[in-house]
What we know:
Helix content is 33%, strand content 19%. By secondary structure, it is an alpha/beta fold. The strands form 2 sheets. A 6-stranded mixed sheet has the order 1-2-3-4-5-6. A 5-stranded mixed sheet has the order 7-8-9-10-11.
Amino acid sequence: MSTPLPAIGSTAPWSGGRASERAVCVLAPNPGIMTLDGTNTWLLHEPGGHRAVVLDPGPDDEEHLRAVVRAAEQLDLHIVATLLTHGHPDHSAGARSFAALTGTGVRALDPAHRLGSEGLAAGDVVTVDDLEIRVVGTPGHTADSLTFLLTGDGALLTGDTLLGRGTTVVAHPDGRLADYLASLRRLRDLAETAGAQRVLPGHGPAMDDATGLLDAYLVHRAARLDQIRAAVAHGCRSAPEVVATVYAVVPQALWPAAELSVLAQLDYLRELGEF
């Protein structure tokens, strides 16, 4: 039950920079066991245009926020909009300061994280110059998680729904596994129908095979569920007991996050009527 599952994503270090024709990553200085190399703040613009959208300003770190503005200035871009993939602080804590710095509002699904009258919802389309960004609802990691399809690049900006290295936590109770699995399948369908194979995640390096990455995530989730079933069958009754059994080979610093995912998985199995 504690057998490690295959690694997912790239093991190469990531320092940000241009990741596609329309996307530049300014890496936040907040590396860690949960944030990998740091939070990816995405500067999005149409080639030849002079206006830009920023996705996930990141932590409330003045130097980082100013670095995002400098990156835009170096490309002769004026930042006109700020969007959030979700409200976790490593993505959103700097949003209010960044809005003050740039004179923009903040658009998010959750009204608690908005600044201004405009929100975001699945099916919305954000356009700046000829840049087109389609909003896709992808709850599961959190209830308010969104993915953005950068249509000109065939790229998916996934926040924490997909990472460039490893897998993400289903942040129980706000995050739900049934929602997360449905979101993974939705993105897989989109990757095929829209030809969106570039993944620009919230943490870790950009990836080129969205379909392969999504398949790996779905296989990983199915394998973890089997491990949870086995742990319960062998007498584990609480989430900490399941974590100590299933995640025994995982660094203990990750166990609190693993416990959230285990709680989400136990709820999911109860919803299926398995126990």
